[in-house]
Amino acid sequence: MTTDAEGETPARHARQVRVVSTSSCAAAVPIQPAAARAAVTVVEPGSKRGWAAVGAIALGAFIVVMTETMPVGLLPRIGDGLHVSLGLAGLMVLVPGFSAAVSAPLFFLSSGRFDRRSVILVLGVTVLVSNAIVAVAPNFVVVLIARMFFGATLGAFWTVVSPVGPKLVGPAGGTRAITIVAAGISGGTVVGLPAGQFLGDLVGWRLTFATAAAATLLVVVAQAFVLPGIPPDGRTHLRDLVGVVTRRAARLGMAAGAVVFIGQFTAWTYITPFLLDHTHLSGGVISLLYVIYGCGGIVGSLVAGSLFKRGVIGSFAGAATIVAALLIGLASAGTLSWLAGLLFVLWGLFWGIVNPGTLVWILDAAPETPEAASAVNVTNLQIALAVGSGAGAILVSSTTLPTVFLTAGLIVLASAVLAGVSARFLTLARRE
From 77's CA, which of 68, 173, 326, 396 has a CA 20 to 30 Å away? Predict the structure, then answer.
């Protein structure tokens, strides 16, 4: 719940949410009252089919997040293969961000009447087609078109998948279902980037995307067999989105989140060439560091739950300050490979706190409409992601890789300062 100087009063019976996050965004998972959850269960509670469906949803989450993060480890190879600069190749990260930013609120407003089973299957097919097109693309323009469609899928995915798990198994298994889906998301985060790096070394970037397309096909087929019909909750309204952004606490949270994401993705988009060309680490070592980075992010997200009980804004500001220091440290690490590796791993740990903090802040500003807050957050952060990737592309084309990371660190530090100032006149209640 949120109070601020404008006297906003939160609803007495606001729904609680659980937060599931990835390297690029976070999603709110509403926890409905028991009676409501029982009413919307779509299969017999606790049935094998229900749990199989939850597993299929988790696999879909794994594929989507893997597809999202995989190109970061392949940018140098894609640039060489299609004869484009490293900065231009970075558009593979920027373009999906803009697409997701547009699709999240549009899907929120237009998807109220569609069966969620059909929506999930269509989204899976779109991911499959996107990966397949990238695998055979004759030029970089076609690659960007395919990634644009994937970005639209990404925004819709985070909007629709959040409340599905508890519907499939009933109230008693709702928490476990959320945990399983979260495991799929975390697995995709951990696997995507190192898988791209490893398979790129082994078979090339085209076969890497072809492999991702084949894996997506298997998941869609499995979902078609096990997912039951999942009726929607009902139509959604523009006023819910407007209601989120008119609150000062939400606007400040959006500003802090946007700035920190701009800084994060100014650096993150070009982490592979930084470790290869500046730190001179081998491909195998980099793949291992990516796995450790991802695992650190999972640990950070778990720790964040306890920290947020003590204060969301303070936890966000503190973690963002450390991330800024780590990025500036990476810019100064030079060829000290052991130090660069240590700073990189710690970056993953503390980003695991910052990332969900961006959403929790906004959710506490609009507790009555968590789905609308989540959609607004996806749009805000995906635009920031795209801006950050674009800023990195400009910098990497005109300066040096250490300058990119130094600039990114200063941007993240600005977000920490904004959060610290906001904490002086915003009060977020401790979360249970």
Answer: 326
